[in-house]
Amino acid sequence: MNATSYSNKSGQGGFGRKSQIKEYQNMDNIGYTSGTLSVANGTQQLGQNPASLKGKLQNLEETTKAVSDELSMHKKELQILKSEKDTLQQVLKVKTDDVQNTLTNELKRLEDEMRRHFNHQKAETHRIQTQINTLKAEKTSLAQTLNGLEHRIQDLEMNVGNHEHF
User: Fold this and answer.
1) What angle do CA 33, 36, 38 make, to 5 degrees?
2) Quick check: helix, strand or coil at residue 38?
3) Closest CA to 52 of 29, 28, 30
4) E strand or H helix at 36, and its extent?
5) Which candidate in 32, 84, 118, 143 could, as Cys together with 27 as Cys, close a disulfide (CB 3.0–4.6 Å)?
6) How far is the first Cα of the chain from the last one, in angstroms, to the nearest whole number?
7) Distances (CA, A) of 108 to 13, 97, 104, 112
8) In what helix (H) or strand (E) does residue 150 lie, and over which residues does it extend?
9) How many other C-beta atoms lie within 10 A of the C-beta of residue 90?
10) Coiled-coil intervals in this record (predicted)?
11) Where along the chain do its domains lie?
12) How far is CA 10 from the centre of its chain?
């Protein structure tokens, strides 16, 4: 609101002018015309500026510039954080792939080693089973030979005893 708008509305010459001046002074007392209100770092400050409208505009422009600069700073910070996030995700993916490849290779190596030990154990079991069967066969053969020798000894003892009586 400016002084000309009050005089046009009042239409009462001198009386309107006094009323207008009082209103203008009242506005000045509460900081509308000569005071400046600035917001910097989240605090409000009331300062005095002789050119009220120009001061307000300048203050508004400064506040807008400060907010714009802060917004730009936050946008840059956001971009940096996004870039760091992307970099960390890539590093994490590389490490995850590396661990997965290492574990896959270790698993294959252990499976091959188990298979080799299993085949070795199977061959060893077969060899021992073959020896057991051979030993059983030899035992049976020796038992038959022993039985045959015992019968022969008995026959010889009978024959020796028979020859002595003659």
Assistant:
1) 150
2) strand
3) 28
4) strand 35-40
5) 32
6) 168
7) 103, 16, 6, 6
8) helix 52-164
9) 10
10) 57-159
11) 3-82
12) 71
Alpha-carbon torsion 36, 38, 44, 47, what sign?
negative
Given a contact cutoff of 8 angstroms between Cβ atoms, the answer to whether 33 and 52 are in contact is: yes
Structure tokens at 13: 């010459």
The answer to whether 16 and 6 are in contact (CB under 8 A) is: yes
Q: How confident is the model at residue 125, as a pLDDT?
A: 98
Q: With a cut of 80, say whether residue 64 has pLDDT above it.
A: yes
Contact in structure between 62 and 38 (CB atoms under 8 Å): yes
Is the pTM here over 0.85, yes or no? no
Asked if residue 1 has pLDDT above 70, the reply is no
pLDDT tens for 131-166 read 999 999 999 999 999 999 999 999 888 888 666 554
* Alpha-carbon span 76 to 82, nearest angstrom: 10
The amino acid sitting at 141 is S
How many angstroms separate the CA atoms of 121 and 129, rounded? 12
